[in-house]
Amino acid sequence: MTISIITVCFNSESTIESTIQSVINQQCDNLEYVIIDGGSTDNTINIINKYKSNIDVFVSEKDRGIYDALNKGISKATGNIIGILHADDVFKNNEVISKVLNSFIMDVDIVYGDIEYVSRENNSKVIRYWRAGEYGEKSFKLGWMPPHTSFFLLRSCYEKYGTYSLELGTSADYELMLRMFEVYHLNAKYLPEILVSMKLGGASNASFNNRWKANRNDKKAWKINDIKPYWFTFFIKPIRKIPQFLKFRSYNS
User: Fold this and answer.
1) Rounded Cα–Cα distance for residues 63 and 36 (Å)
2) Are 141 and 229 in contact (CB under 8 A)?
3) To bridge 68 with a disulfide, which of 63, 93, 151, 232 should be the other Cys (CB 3.0-4.6 Å)?
4) Would you list the DSSP string of 5-18?
């Protein structure tokens, strides 16, 4: 099987090089690298061009945001499997992709794993550890979701069941994963190790207003898929993040 890794970026000159190196240094021969840039005006494109011999698809043009860019990348990818690595993120080590590929055994549609969040100022300082854990029948209703950047999906599933909805803002990744797990009941395999190191922060958590919008769009994600959460699903979802900080501290104490 082959795998396509999609990186979307915009004015990412401070982080894009480490992301690219993280991908091209993977110990995997069956890897296609796709970069979708939103029309950067800083030094991002010059940095990308340094590695053009290692990049299979590169597009730089205006888009409607992260998820529009991801949909564009998915449409251009040719691998059997698609994974996403944003311009602030790096793979934990050079064996991640080979381990993901080996996990796509017969009847597996999704592979996901754990991630860690690091300080934006100090990449070696881990702030939060997101242990995804096994998916169960009531997991999403109990506020669970896998880390999006550790989520790998067969390209054929995007083709059959759709890509990211641009109407859901920063909840587009939540809705897509909810749809794949809860509507189409795809077979998933959990890879219990850290796959990606992410810089702390993100659009949905950038402010109280963004968090409120994300919560509202999370509710819309259930509604448009005609599935019903528990009454407390959207209250417990952010609460589930608290142990991610505490477990990391306990692990390192």
Assistant:
1) 9
2) yes
3) 63
4) EEEEESS-TTTHHH
For 196-208, what is the HEC assignment? EEEECCCHHHCCH
C-alpha 130/C-alpha 147 separation (Å) is: 8
Tokens 């549609």 correspond to 109
Q: Which residues contact 146 (CB under 8 A, 6 or more apart)?
A: 112, 132, 135, 177
- Taking only the tens place, the pLDDT of each residue in 66-103 is 999 999 999 999 999 999 999 999 999 999 999 999 99
Spatial separation of the C-alpha atoms in residues 174 and 147, rounded to whole Å: 9
Tokens at 123, concatenated: 């990449």
Could you tell me which residues come within 8 angstroms of residue 126 by beta carbon, excluding any fewer than 6 positions away?
116, 117, 118, 248, 252
User: What is the pTM for the complete model shown?
Assistant: 0.93
Q: What is the pLDDT of residues 181-195, one digit of tens each?
A: 999 999 999 999 999
Chain-centroid distance, C-alpha 248? 21
Structural domain including 20 reads: 3-252
Tokens representing 86 are 């944003």
Q: Number of folded domains in the chain?
A: 1
State the CATH number of the domain containing residue 163. Answer: 3.90.550.10
Pairing of strands 3-9, 81-84: parallel
